[in-house]
Amino acid sequence: MTDPKSFLTSIFNAAVAAADPEKTIRDHLPAKPKGRTIVIGAGKGSAQMAAAFEKVWDGPIDGLVVTRYGYGARCERIEIIEAAHPVPDAAGLEASRRLLEKVRGLTADDLVVALISGGGSALLPSPAPGLTLADEIAVNEALLASGAPIAAMNAIRKHVSTIKGGRLAAAAHPARVVSLVVSDIPGDNPALVASGPTVPDTGSRVDALASIAAYGMKLPASVMAHIQSPAADAPRPDDPRFAGNEVHLTASAGVSLEAAAAEAKRQGIEAVILSDAIEGEAREVGGVHAAIAREVATRNRPFRKPVLILSGGETTVTLRAKGKGGRNSEFLLAFAIGIDGVDGIHALAADTDGIDGSENNAGAFADGSTVARMRVAGVDAKAMLAGNNAWTAFNAVDDLFVPGPTGTNVNDLRAILVR
């Protein structure tokens, strides 16, 4: 192998291909209804899911989905709206209003197909009565800076919304709702993807308040007052309005990791999967992965070289400064510091949707020379990590990974090659 970056890129591409919406949606088509078929959706992969659904559904459809700016796809019968992510905006607010309007007035003979993927939480702002878009933006910004796991974040989001936590499906009653979900959630609970607009869960506002306290979040007084009131309660899974609905997981990190491992083996490299549900502070997870890679490189344990070490899940970043970065680049900067000077280790950490944080990269590459090359470029890796400035550090040595939008979102992929 002469080019580890090309090898690692091929591993990323294999993982993304395993979540291709046209294949996965074809395998989960619902039965046709007597009445109308309405397609709705939200998420960073929802436009590509809509385009795929149009190709494989041979009946009449009407629909509307919302995706991130720049993530649209060409559709003939389903309207695509673009809005802001990761911080909501007015376009998302209008999209939420129109989605709720789209499913109202349906009958028991109608079918609603919901195409849901990660990112939908930010793309579906719909403040509860008495709250504003500014309140929901403040909540989202506090969540992103808190370091809270995605399950805790979404439990809070659904209690300040009129569309999340199953409320979009409840609005469609008595129509049957079939949700096709691409999971970016550790553990693959579909109710947590995009804060579950069509899939309710059992999380209560008591749970939301506990998470707010546990992670020291400072939310607007109006938001706190709402969450503390019964008006914030979300529908529960045993609500009869959901009785005839279906939920299908069409793609997940686990399936994509298996595909990545198979591609490595096809190229002659054994692969091991640590987990598809790793959570925790990105820099700490990066340090642990670095320790494992060093052990393999120097002692040939717990895995024998050559080997590709894979993991998935979703880490978090507690913001300590206002640098540029994302959870994958922060993970990888900590990893690079941990393998500094060790030969034979090459790694890629990237978000499978093609975007890590707020910049245009999915993640970055690193090896044992990364920190030294940063030093030559005038960059102090440890200072960059302390300032949440991983993007700047990797940009200085031309090691950013920029594949562009992928059309899917099955969480993060970490691939570590030990030669």
Automatic annotation (TrEMBL):
Record key words, sorted: Kinase, Transferase
Q: Where is the MOFRL domain?
A: 308-412
Q: Which residues form the MOFRL-associated domain?
A: 8-228
Q: Which GO terms label this protein's molecular function in UniProt?
A: kinase activity
Transferase found in the keyword field: yes
Protein name according to UniProt: Glycerate kinase
Which Gene3D superfamilies did the record assign?
Glycerate kinase, MOFRL-like N-terminal domain, MOFRL domain
Return the InterPro entries for the record: GK-like_C_sf, GK_N_sf, MOFRL, MOFRL_assoc_dom, MOFRL_protein
Q: Which species is this UniProt entry from?
A: Mesorhizobium australafricanum
Q: What highest taxon heads this organism's lineage?
A: Bacteria
